[in-house]
Amino acid sequence: MRWIILAAMMSGAGSAASADPALGVWQTGPDRKGQIAHVEVTRCAEALCGRIIRAYSAEGHEITTPNVGKRVFWDMTPAGTDRYSGRAWVPAHDREYAATMLLEGNRLKVSGCVGPICQSQVWARPN
To answer: Which domain covers residue 30, as residue numbers?
Structure first.
């Protein structure tokens, strides 16, 4: 599955001990096969991490994939208002990238770059 999961997380305005609006479950955009994932964002020490907890086919049926349970981003630390930066893993490439996340209301813009080439995906809360 291809997840353009390159990241930077949300609201860095509060302390690490306060409730962060980025915590919880987010739904990725579809990959090239139309599959989506649910990523759970949790605290990892002073940073945020994300792990794939479920995957769905283009038709909306839950599917089994080797990526479920895998960490897709980590070390996401505050990098400004509603912004985080850290590292992400993209399953389709099986590579790590520098990543940023930006919380925009109920949306999470996840971006990653290799040199000057960047890609983004907007995640939302699942229904």
So the answer is: 24-124
Contact 52, 26 (CB under 8 A): no
pLDDT digits (tens, 9 = 90+) for 34-49: 999 999 999 999 999 9
68 assigned to some structural domain: yes
Residue 87 belongs to what H/E stretch? Answer: strand 83-90
- Residue 35: both structure tokens together: 């599959």
**CA separation for the pair 105, 18 (Å, rounded):** 18
Q: How many CB atoms lie within 10 A of CB 89?
A: 22
pTM of the full structure:
0.82
Strand partners, 112: 99, 119
Residue 69 has, within 13 A of its CA and on its CB side, a CA count of 4
